[in-house]
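Project standup — Tuesday

K.O.: blocked on the structure for the chain from last sprint. Re-posting the sequence here as requested.
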Amino acid sequence: MKIFLGDLTYTTVTIATEALPINIGYIASYCTKRFGNKVDIKLFKYIEELEKAINESPPDILGLSNYVWSQNVSNEMFKLFTKKNPDGLKIWGGPNFPIDMPSQKKFFEDFKDVDVYIPTDGEIGFSNLVEKALQVNTKEMRSKVLQEPIDGCMIKNPDGDLLYTIEGTRIRNLDEIPSPYLTGILDHFFDDKLVPMLQTNRGCPFLCTFCTDGRESVNQVNRFGKQRVKDELDYIAKHVKENIHSLYISDLNFGMLPGDLETCNSIVEIQKKYNYPEKINATTGKNNQERIIESIKSLNGTMLMSMSVQSMDEQVLTNIKRANISAEKMVELSPTIHEYGVNTSGEIIMGMPGQSYASVLDTIRQLIYGKVDDIIIHACMMLPGSEMATPAERSKWKLETKFRILPMDFTVLANGKKICEIDEIVVGSKDMTFDDYLALRMIAFTLSIVNRATLFEPLLKFLKQQKIDVSKLFFKMVEERKSSPKPVELMYDRFNKVTINELYDSPEEIISLIQNDEEYQKLIEGRGAINVIKYHGAAVLSECMDEWTEYALSTANDLLQKGVTWNEEIERQFHDVGNYCRGRCHNPLGKDRMQTNPEFTFYYDIIKWLSDNSDNMLLDECKLPEPVKTVFKLTDEQYKFINDTLELYGDNLIGKTKARLLESTQTVWRKPIPNTNFSEKL
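H.V.: unblocked you, prediction finished:
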């Protein structure tokens, strides 16, 4: 039996979803284990390759993953497959599927070509379906397989009725699934574009209403064996291409479980042996923060401590069923985390049930004073597989939504049809207006640059030690943007305009619009379908970082002039702090970045001052006996990392957005090199 499995990504302007397709690798390896040479399974990541294969030699079964970033293109592949093989089975699986029955029925009405949906871990449901299909003639396969329920599957029978059993049993001992790495099934995907992904466990103990994993059916956390994880890490490191420097970990709460420290130790061994990975992308756990710290600190700064607080408002947390997660506990541990040289990031979702403009601002303030390095504010996505997206929750909180094109997720198929992926976001509710939404987006943009670990660290520390409310810096920069340097003012105007223009009233409006060649060309040119905050952050880095730095410093100067007793020593200290920021921020991505190395004379040992994570040391305690000249340079390693990254994603604003260079604090910003021997903090 010929089976195609796909986990698709767009590559029109750059690769949109670069994770190696381990998900379909698991399903393929489990089916191969069960059925051996009775099945011939081929895996696909790239749209054009699957499209070509279906046209030339369609399979008996087409199974595709369904995420918000691949739903529409997968549906088009099903349509194509129906034309090429009307008797073939079309199977969808993944989290992008409603949880209430009325919405599930509508789902099958909207996606008429889909025969079967597998809503939870796919190995059992898919292999059960394959087992049934192997028992019948391929010409009769579709009609016979769809006649009765199959464990782990939701089936639409030929009459349009839905057949299902109790949600399928999950595999408790995950080592029953052969490793798609160690069996070689994924070797084809070790190319110069895809980033390896590791999974050490499945499931989430939390019930967050905004998340597709907030379901009781996946509440149990199951693990892969320690030796298997170690062997997979070694295999990945041996096969990954030289230009790929990162590793994804798909665990939903990495670092929280007892075995995660052993995984980190295994990663460290791999790093020493292969100099890979240089950067680890993972979602860290919500509880057991001390254990998470212990795990992450062992990784020597290659991974951030991510604190998904979402809100510090207790009522909001109750509304979204996060009352069992201590946001305050997360924030309280941030100073401890810093002692180990680990940076932190705090995530906020705006627009959640019961959340107001004021409560978001209060959450920002608490994260700032909790010494969280990076504060990331997300729009609230309405994910079909989440409780929040159900009709009942929408009505209860009067959630107002708009639609937008997902960044970089668009293409033209071989038949000439233009398609894109669309997400739905909350832009208003009974507690938040649309104007509140726009204002918060502007603050989020400012935070994404100014409240960045190591970038403006001395400025923010200096303001805090002078008893200045640091949140006022960000709010004031937004409020007084009309008086900022012209390049900065224009950047704010661009950001606000795009924030409004990216929103549409319906998915149908978007699909109709992009069929117009001129509108589609706007997507190609980066005038649409972008991550608005990251795109404009990349634009700041590329076009006006020096002016942005001067605006931040002048705004801080105004706050200091009004908030402290100004004297010559404060002025000299602020001058040194400002020059340190100027040096770190200068020309991070210019083609001449290795030749433009600013030099400043310092009267205070800024590096020593910053190294005191306790914040007890004041800058006046770090006065130098003699002034010291310090040059700010990029190392050869930084230059190579940036070049490799831009070569992978594209040396343009879209590529720089995708590369997330703004988040790579150790690789983008210049390092201070004093001409004396005091210790340097990198």
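K.O.: great, moving the ticket to review. The first strand starts at residue 2 and ends at 9. Confidence is low (pLDDT under 50) at residues 678-682.
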